[in-house]
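Hi everyone, sorry if this is the wrong subforum. Our group has a chain we'd like a structural model of before ordering constructs, and none of us has done structure prediction before. Sequence below.
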Amino acid sequence: MSSVNEILTAAASLDAEQFVVLREELDRLEEQLWQRESTQATAELRDAKITDEEIDRFVMRRRREGRS
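Answer:
Right subforum, don't worry. Here is the predicted structure as tokens:
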């Protein structure tokens, strides 16, 4: 069983209060990952002499694609 399936199985057994705590922790983790990705993408694009506006568009597009 994959780690994701194990997590989903465990999450399915949580009561409502525990599930809210899990969701909050996952939200924090997602924010940390987003910040890391944003920082990395910005550095790569600045090295390529891309403008801030182009960086913003690129990062947001990359973020949307990652969620689909």
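For your construct planning: The CA atoms of residues 12 and 24 lie 16 Å apart. The chain has one domain: 14-67.
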